[in-house]
Amino acid sequence: MKELYTIGETAALMGITTRTLRYYNSMGLISPSYTDPDTGYRYYSFKQFHYIDRIKYLQSFGLSLESIKEVILSGSVETLLSHLNEQREKQRRAIEESEKILRDIEWYIEYFTYGASGRPPEEFYRIHLEERYILNTPCFAGEPVDEKAVRLAALKSRKQEERLAYRRQYGFLMDFDAMLEGRFLEAGYFVYLREKPAVLSPGIRSLPAGEYLCFRSRIFLDDIDTHRIRDYIREPPPHTLVIANEYEDNLKEYERAEYEIQILL
Q: Which residues does the UniProt record annotate as the domain HTH merR-type (predicted)?
C-alpha cells in the first residue's frame, strides 16, 4: 500500500477538489502529512483519509467548518456530541418553520380554490367554523377603502415586535342592523392571523367558534337581498357578528372581489 498520496490523488479518492484541501489546510483543519521541500508538492497519508471523510460527513449535517475544526482538534467524543446536539435542535427548528410555510402554501391554494367554488350569490348555506383570530382596525363612516388599508398596514408595522404570523386574507366586520336595512356598513377592517397569539394585545380579537349562516356577494357592487336574509333569520340571533371574508378572483381589481358573508347564529 502506498504511504503517501498527492493532493490530486487524495482529492479524487475523497470526492473533493484540491482547492478544498488547500482551504482545509489554510484554516488549520487538516494539513498535508508531507510537503516536498524542493517542489512544494503536498502529500496526504492514508491515515488522514478518515479525517477528511469525517469532515465531509459532518458538513453534510450543516456543521460549520469552525465547529468541525473544534471537534477534530479536540479528538473528543463529548465535543462532537455537543455540536451534534446543537445542530439537531437547529434542524428541528428549521423543519418546524418549513412545515409552517408548507401549511401556509396549502392554505393559500385553498383560499383561491374555495373562492372559485362557484356558489351562486342567491344560495344560503351553513358552516361550522372554529375560533379564529384577526388584527382589526376600526372603520369610519364615509372613508374610502384605501384609508382603512393604510391604517391596517400601519397597525401591522407597529405589531412587528410581537412576531405575529399572518394569513393573507382580508375582510370586514359588518354592522348587522345596517345589513338588514340593505346596507353594507363596515365596522372594522382586518387581516387573519395564522394562529392564536400569545397575548391578545390591542387590535387583536377573536372570532368565536360556532355555526354561521353564509352567502356570497360582491359587496362593493351588489345589492343586498334583505328579504331573503330575514326569511332565514326569523329572530335576531343572540350574536350580531357579521364577517365579510374577501376571496380574490384576480390579482388586480379588489373592488370586484367576492366576499363570503358569515353571520354568527
A: 4-74
What pLDDT, on a 0 to 100 scale, did the predictor assign at position 256? 82
pLDDT at 229: 81
Predicted confidence at residue 28, as pLDDT, reads 94
Residue reference for cell 391578545: 200
What are the b/e assignments for 176-214, b being 16+ CB within 10 Å?
beebbeeebebbbbbbbbeeebeeeeebbeebeeeebbb
Query: Which residues of the chain fall below pLDDT 50?
Result: none
Looking at the domain that runs over 4-87, which CATH code has it been given? 1.10.1660.10
pLDDT 10s digits, 147-156:
999 999 999 9
CATH superfamily assigned to domain 116-264: Regulatory factor, effector binding domain (3.20.80.10)
Q: Is the dihedral of CA 212, 215, 216, 220 positive or negative?
A: negative
The grid cell for 196 is: 392564536
For the entire predicted model, the pTM comes to 0.79
How is the chain split into domains, by residue range? 4-87, 116-264
**SS3 of residue 68 by DSSP:** helix
